[in-house]
Specification:
CATH topology of the largest domain: Methylamine Dehydrogenase, Chain H
Distance between the termini: 22 Å
Order of helices and strands: EEEEEEEEEEEEEEEEEEEE
Strand content: 35-45%
Strand order of the largest sheet: 1-2-3-4
Structural class: mainly beta
Radius of gyration: 19 Å
Largest sheet: 4 strands, antiparallel
Number of strands: 20
CATH superfamily of the largest domain: YVTN repeat-like/Quinoprotein amine dehydrogenase
């Protein structure tokens, strides 16, 4: 993968890369506590943690700070703990979630018997005491990693067979995107203390791109984009009905291929910019 200072236009083919993995890199995540540290998960079944030099890369980086080995299949998800330093979660196609002590390179917690099918995504809650996962078996699970137990789960969160996403919100509720039985895209809001019925459930449209939620806890706004969509819809999450309040849609001529948030301190607050 590449790490470079933000610029537009083409990047020179000879630009240095981070290239220690022996298989394709599937996910990367910047450390929230150290701007120079980034983790990557790969098809080579390992997770690697890298130290990027203060002034960026001048030579390709082949030596990670630490290699985390423990998955038996490719690692599709890496996510740093939001509040504890040096704690990293990884989830692989072996249906296992491992929480690592990056300082020692050891696995702290191995949750390998909770998922029977592929894990689509994993989300920490605000203080890092719980995680929620969306899986191919159509279940959303809320897991207490320290007790190593499932504290809440919902079967058929969305009835459709296509991929789902589930993320924790700042207030502890869970926001999910998925598909209905009629292949319509849906979004839903859940209270993990009572997963019987959603707080809110909305049908969107019948496009087949998976809706990826990007959440800003400061403004309680969720931005939904889909691969191949040329629009981004955004919603405010509120305490009273309709709970998921539609704000607006941004449309462009170009379809999206991927998306990522600018960190808050990269925003132009003088122009009242709240997200980029």
């Amino acid at each position: 993968f590449l790490v470079f200072s933000l610029q537009t236009g083409r990047i020179d083919k000879s630009y240095p890369t981070v290239c220690g993995h022996t298989g394709p890199v599937l996910d990367i995540d910047w450390c929230p506590h150290n701007d120079q540290v980034i983790a990557s998960g790969s098809e080579d079944c390992t997770v690697m943690v890298w130290q990027i030099p203060e002034n960026g890369l001048t030579l390709s980086l082949t030596e990670p700070v630490v290699v985390l080995e423990g998955h038996s299949k490719r690692v599709g998800i890496v996510a740093w703990h939001p509040t504890a330093r040096n704690v990293l979660l990884s989830a692989g196609c072996d249906n296992a979630i491992i929480i690592w002590n990056v300082g020692t390179g050891e696995a702290l917690i191995n949750l390998d018997d909770m998922h029977v099918d592929m894990i689509y995504n994993v989300s920490w809650n605000r203080n890092g005491s719980l995680i929620c996962t969306a899986s191919k078996d159509k279940k959303v699970r809320v897991i207490d990693p320290r007790k190593q137990e499932i504290v809440a789960e919902k079967e058929k969160t969305h009835e459709g067979a296509r991929p789902m996403r589930a993320i924790f919100l700042a207030d502890g509720n869970i926001f999910t995107t998925g598909f209905s039985r009629m292949s319509e895209r849906q979004l839903a809001l859940w209270n993990p203390k009572n997963m019987e019925e959603p707080i809110a459930l909305h049908e969107m449209d019948t496009s087949n791109g998976v809706l990826l939620p990007f959440y800003d806890p400061d403004t309680n706004i969720i931005y939904l984009c889909g691969k191949g969509d040329s629009s981004i819809r955004y919603f405010e999450i509120t305490d009273e009905s309709p709970y998921v309040h539609y704000l607006n849609t941004f449309s462009s001529k170009e379809p999206q291929r991927g998306m990522g948030f600018m960190p808050k301190r990269g925003l132009d607050v003088n122009k009242c910019e709240i997200a980029r």
